[in-house]
Amino acid sequence: MARKSPPMDSKKADRIIADARAEKARREKTYRERALKLFPWICARCGREFSGKRLRELTVHHKDHNHDNNPPDGSNWELLCLFCHDNEHARYVEQDSLEPLPREETKPSTSYKAFASLESLLKGKK
Q1: Is the whole model's pTM more than 0.70, yes or no?
Q2: Is there a domain that residue 113 lies in?
Q3: Distance of CA 118 to CAs 1, 15, 108, Å?
């Protein structure tokens, strides 16, 4: 029988979520600001240009999908609009789901060979 863990205090859960969001925002702010200084404000996929209030629609995409890989030269980043960024991640998830799972090497469960004597049976039928 599975043990139920005690319910989490809602204040503790709120604090954990707030801390995670703050950390994400802090991390994004640093590389986003650098990316906007390094690259033209154009979506690398569709070519739309951004400025003013619409600049918030331009996102930083990590080419290797590792948000902690932020080299100072920006070689792991590209600026994508919200739509192209969503599309890129959807393609990544789809590709990930289509890759075959690794198979374990297994020995046959039986030594019976259904067609072992087929050749000898067919020799006299020509």
Answers
A1: no
A2: no
A3: 54, 72, 20
